């Protein structure tokens, strides 16, 4: 998520205030930064790749002015590599408007073409740069900043939090938002814009939490908030009681819980950019995998580590089951040393949140050296894997700060769903009409995640009611792979021994481990397999296990309850997508178990967020 800060005041200290505000947002993760300030000779813009200190050094070197008003930005790249030119703020063609942005403009390509046809030229690879261009175009027509912003907003599809400056209005700052958070801070003879409360907490605890389609107009004395028609809207002042640490977590006690709750938004962002309203196929042409390429392949490997490996297992299952395409999944640390068969008829798909995992990067390099094409499914733009892969599918989970991966995994699954559909359509295993129906199911996923998150207290109560020494996650088919991720979460943040097992395999040995006090978590979402899994659960129950089931609301709940001591239901959904939904309770189970044990949820012992060494 990008960081936004805006300041307007009666003292000439805007640059210092903005740089201070950006430093309070550094925890969010970013790869470049920039600032725009009103000066007597017009708006000055400076921006640099890398850390905030690079910008600070640059501003000091050139004697950048302080000014009375301006906006600043730290960029978490989505469209366009981290670079000076891709950093925000961005200018309009005529330098009448400057903008900083957090979010994703899904229809930026279409708007960019329209603006180019009208004579505009663009400097960056970002989606953001179309925003000042289109606002300026309407400002030239209307000469009314609010109307120009409103008209521009109504043309854009996607998410945005905007800080906006008009060169001929030095006494004002403008802000607007949809889907990306943005606040307005109330000061004494000064006011603020920020993407997050920590940026302004040192100066004010009174803020307006802008709502979707709000437009705010700030000067040193007044803050006005209007709707798209320019009519005043009333917003209550929110008085912040959090300290800085909890403000960085958005009021959540841990980054992990904040990131669990970000999943509806980030899954929507990851899906939306590739689900075109009027097209019955996902937008995947940037992945370089055409029907010819696919038909020319003799094998597909999916290679990853940890949670990303579990996402790959789900991807494999779906690609084989739906696209009828054989896919081999391996952990990168094994793949890179077993001399696998790789040649130019091989596609290797590497999955990595950080894009820096040593084993996964090594597997990529080995594969390319052997002539394979490599597709990277990566969350961090500009990371080593994203730069070295032949093609990249970016997940848009935003910076994932907690060591335990949650929202990135859900976005990796979203990527697998689209990849499965893409392969199936290319191979004639899915019709456009079938994808049309599937698209509806995909679009409905974020809301279903939100429904499950409402069960947080119910899930916490379940954690409070158990105290297991060992935990088994069991399931069949996709449910088995889902359990792998649940088991890893419990291990890595609650330090509790657990393992995921194919339910049908228990009787081939592991059932000897079952004794009173063993907690067995049955993931039972695959309707065709429910009876078999329930009978496996009856076997463990008969030997003293506590049984917790995760199942769908439309399952045969009487059958489930015949074996479950406790049950968590998830909304009905397309069978393909249960791994994403069933994992939300697993995330919360692990989270609350870690909290119950008093462990460091966000920074668990012995672990690093990115394993950049073997
Ligand atoms: C997940 O919760 C863990 N932090 C870990 O397994 C992680 O998924 C693994 O190290 C891979 O990281 P990557 O996705 O950044 O490559």
Helix count equals 21
Report the CATH topology name of the largest domain: Glutamine Phosphoribosylpyrophosphate, subunit 1, domain 1
Question: What is the terminal separation in angstroms?
Answer: 29 Å
- The order of strands across the largest sheet is 3-2-4-1-10-9-11-14
* Total beta strands: 24
What about the largest sheet?
8 strands, antiparallel
Structural class: alpha/beta
CATH architecture tag of the largest domain: 4-Layer Sandwich
Strand content: 15-25%
In the CATH scheme, the class of the largest domain would be Alpha Beta
Described by the principal axes of the CA atoms, the overall outline is globular
What molecules are bound to this protein? 2-deoxy-2-amino glucitol-6-phosphate
Low confidence ranges: none
**Integer tally of domains:** 3
Question: Would you tell me the overall average pLDDT?
Answer: 95
Specify the helix fraction band: 25-40%
**CATH superfamily of the largest domain, called what?**
Aminohydrolase, N-terminal nucleophile (Ntn) domain
Output the radius of gyration.
25 Å
